[in-house]
Structure formats: C-alpha cells, structure tokens
Amino acid sequence: MKRPLAYLAVLFATGIFIASVFRIPPLFASLLTAVFVLLSAIVFRRGIAASILLYLAVASSGCAAYSAAGILPPDHISGLLAGGSGAVYIQGRITDDPILSSTFYNKDKISFLLDVKSVKDGPSWRKASGLVKAALFGLRPPFGYGDEVVLEGVLSAPSGLKNPGLFDYSKYLADKGIYACLKVKEGFLAWRLRGSNSGLLKKAAYAVKRAMRDALNAHIDDPYAGFLEAILIGDRTNLDKTLEDDFIKTGTVHVISISGLHVGFIAAMILGIFYLLRIPKKAGLAIALPILVFYAVLAGEGPPIVRSVIMFAVFAIGYIAGRDNDVINSLGLAALVILVPAPKTFFDPSFQLSFASIASTIILTPRIEALAGVNAVGRLSGRSRVNVYLVKGMAVSLAAWAGTWPLVAYYFNIASPVAIIANLVIVPALAILTALAFLFLFGYFAVPFAAAPLAFVVRHFEALIFYINKLLSEIPFGHFRIPAPDPVTAVLYYCLLALLFLPSDLRIFGKKIRKARLLAAALILLNIAVWKDALPGRAAAKMIFFDAGHGDAALLMLRGGENIL
C-alpha cells in the first residue's frame, strides 16, 4: 500500500470521531477490534476482504482508544467536585512552567498544572490522582516546574459553555485530561515541600523560556513584547486581544501560534548558519534535530509544533540514511504519534487546523499550480520568474485557505477570503520578524550594547506588520461573520474537495468507479445538508436559554417564524 501511515492515521482518526458521536463502550470497541483482526487472519489469502477487515480494525481501535481515555480512576480528583465549595488541601507536583499574569483588578495571578498525589477534605489525607488547573491570586511563592507543593483552595469544575456557539472551555480542558480547577486566594496555604529533582530537559527549557521573556520585556513594551512572546515561546498571556482579532479577520491568526511555520523558520536559520560555516548538511541536520526538540519543549509541546518536529525528524533521519521521504506519510506518522497516546487531542483546534493546513497545502498546491499553467519543474510558460513566484505563492495560500476555512468558520465564526492575499504578505514578513527577534535575543545575551538598537528595529518592524494587517482586515468583504457549519457539512465539503483533484477514473479494490458519479452524489448530499433547515415543514419550535450577564434570558423560536424574547 502506498502511504500506509497516512491511511492508518485517517482510519484511526475516523474511529475517534465515530466514538465521540455514538459513545461506543471501550470494551465493545476492543472486542470489535479483536474480531476484525481475527477475521482478517482467517481470510488472509483473500486480499480485498483481508484489507477491508484490517481497515475496520484500525478504525475500531481508534474508537477503543477514545472511549478508554474517558475512563477515570476511582480516586480521581473530579470525584470531589460534588462535595461542596469548602476549602480542600491538595498535594502534588507542578507539571509545567508557572505563568505570572495580572487580573482585571491588577492582582498577581500565578497559573500552572498540578499532578495530584493526595488530598485532604476532612480530618486525614488520602490518595488521589488527576490534573488540576491551579490559580494563585495575590500570592507569589517561588514555585517552579517539578516542585512538590501543598495548596489550600476552593475546588470547582472548569467554567463551561455560557451561551450557544461560544468556546467551551470546560470541554477544551477535559480533552486535555483536566476536569478540575483550584482557586487559591490570599490568606490560603501555598507551601513548597521540596524542589524539583527530575525533568532536567524541561527545567532547562523553561529556564531559557523565562530568560527570553525577561529579555523581551526589558527592551520592548506591549503589545509588541506580548506578540513576540506568543510567536517565539508560545506564551499568549500578554497578547493583545484586539490585535489577535485583526489577525483572525485576515485569516493569518496561525502566525501567532507556534507551528510548523516557526519550526521551518528556525530550522532554515540553523541550517543557513551551518552552511555559512561549511558544516556538511548531514551533520547540520543531526545537530538541528535536538535543538528543535528542545525548542518544542520550550514552546509548550502543542500539537502543531510536535507535528512539525516529527516531520523534520523523519526528513532528517531519511536524508542521513539516504532514504526518500514521503511528506504525506510523515504527516500520517506524526498524527499517529500524537493520537495513539492522547486520542482526545483530535478535537484540539490547533491539531485540526495544523494538520488540515499542511495536508491541503501538500495535496492541493501542485494541482492549483498545474491549473495556473506552472509546469512540473516550476516554470510558467512565457512569464517572468517574479510571476512564477507570485503564482506559486498564491497557489500555496489558496490551498491552505481551501483546506482550513470550514474549521476557522467553526471555531471563530468567520470566513476570510482576504487570507489568500494576506498570507502572501504576513507570512514572509513574519519570517523576517522571527530572524530579527532571534538576532535581538542573541545581542541581548552576547552583545548587550547592541540590544537597544536591535529592539528599536524589531519594534518598528512589528508596528509595520500590525499596520498592514489592520489595513487588510478593513478591506470591504474581506471577511464575513458566519454561523459555524455543522460537522456533517464540513465532512461533505472535504469529500467534495478531495474528489475535485482525484483522477477521472478511480479504482477502489480493483473496481473502476467514475469520479463524475461520486461528485454528483457529494454535491446532492452537500446541498441537502446546507438547505435542510430551509425546506418546508422542517422548522421546529426551539427554546434557547442564554446568560445575559446579570441574569438569564430565553428565546422562543416558533414554527411560524415569530420569535419571543
């Protein structure tokens, strides 16, 4: 099978999606997987039947993995959530880098994840497990990654979805295995039992991260420092929300999240320096790989950066070993490495946007270039090299937009056609800004007297990027506020997009199938999904309750079209 890892990843992810919709019990999914594997072994000599059964086994294993991930142990900390609102004592280990920020009332707030070891909500301590999102208000204890601490606070469930269509923070945390929050107020106990004696790689990465943050804040003020913290070290605590909204409007918000774009920039800088130093490419790749792994830990190990580092590792190892590398296969491997141990990551917006973006760019860009007249060697008949670069850049931007706009619409309720143009400007500008920012950091630590002039250049170049992005965000009809598409419509859209670029005659298990028929079926189903609520007799009465700030409200939507608030 060509690109087996890509197919396995798609099937495993399909199983995760099915389990999330139909709530399949893990035992049933596991037994189903075993049955499919056994049947495939029995009919091993019948190629088509054995292949189908193995595909079904992979999909059902995705179901089993997702269902099992939702099973919590009896001593899980979430069991205390129904026990009232009194203070509890929790002992555990800090598993990430504590972040200091300010509240709306200008109070210090320190946030971190706590891996719970034991809890006291009565006269004695007892064993407990699970992750807690801890927030300390008005306290500044010297906590760091890996420290064993005891906290006194009020335990509660994460705040859930307040109104229809809004971001569901409680579900977002649950997908990361976090089911409880701890609020530690002034006057409560926050005590460090012992310092960290493990996790040297993370300790070093977080120390470098803090040093980079201090360097940025020493010479660059907000919103410029907050933006650089987001794109360099993955810390969005001080990111200006108005600025972020402008990037959402232009469809370039991906430049703010640490992703493959940033890994590519950093890898290019490292390899460029090695090239100038005349270090052989194989040696350069071998040195660059651990640097990128360290950077991934520093930046928070989010799905986009983990995906990028895995793909770079596959490329580097393949190049060093003299083996060809298939990018789609590498993408499949990255997805499996992320999803098998943490299947709920599939529903992380950054995971979906990252994989959809890179997959659509790889698959669709050559097809769009071919439609524009760019030949296989990257030349445009009768056109200048500049025109070729513009066409190729537009093809990449259009491919990425086509592959991600349903997801952007789902999570941000916005569609941004201007993104096709904006990415041509903002992405190259971000590459220059990243290089300038690292040059500033090098100057700050190695040549201190050069830090101030370099910070001046960085700050003004950022201001230029913000100004251009603001102009693009204000282009008439450049973006539209739209309702989130339902999952069925999104899946049908991606099926239609895939069919448009497949060969005219398809062969599935040796049987010839005309693409035109599949396209017609996909279009019919897509139209039904889009227009189903507009059909006569489909409208049903609805009542929607929502939070109006100082009270609750209800909207009654009647069959005849009348609304009562």
Architecture overview:
The structure is a single chain. The chain has 565 residues and is of the alpha+beta class. Helices cover 54% and strands 14% of the residues. It contains 17 helices and 15 strands. The chain has helices spanning 4-22, 26-42, 47-69, 169-175, 200-219, 224-233, 241-249, 260-276, 281-298, 303-321, 327-339, 349-371, 385-412, 419-446, 451-473, 487-500, 515-531; strands at residues 87-94, 99-102, 108-120, 126-127, 131-137, 148-156, 178-184, 190-194, 414-415, 480-481, 505-508, 511-514, 542-547, 552-557, 563-564. A five-stranded mixed beta barrel has the order 1-3-5-7-6. A hairpin with a 5-residue loop joins strand 2 (99-102) and strand 3. The protein is globular, with a radius of gyration of 26 Å.
Helix and strand arrangement:
Layout: H1 4-22, H2 26-42, H3 47-69, E1 87-94, E2 99-102, E3 108-120, E4 126-127, E5 131-137, E6 148-156, H4 169-175, E7 178-184, E8 190-194, H5 200-219, H6 224-233, H7 241-249, H8 260-276, H9 281-298, H10 303-321, H11 327-339, H12 349-371, H13 385-412, E9 414-415, H14 419-446, H15 451-473, E10 480-481, H16 487-500, E11 505-508, E12 511-514, H17 515-531, E13 542-547, E14 552-557, E15 563-564
Parallel strand pairs: 5-7
Antiparallel strand pairs: 1-3, 1-6, 2-3, 3-4, 3-5, 6-7, 6-8, 9-10, 11-12, 13-14, 14-15
Helix pairs in contact: 1-3, 1-11, 2-3, 5-6, 5-9, 7-15, 8-9, 8-10, 8-14, 9-10, 10-11, 11-12, 12-13, 13-14, 13-16, 14-15, 16-17
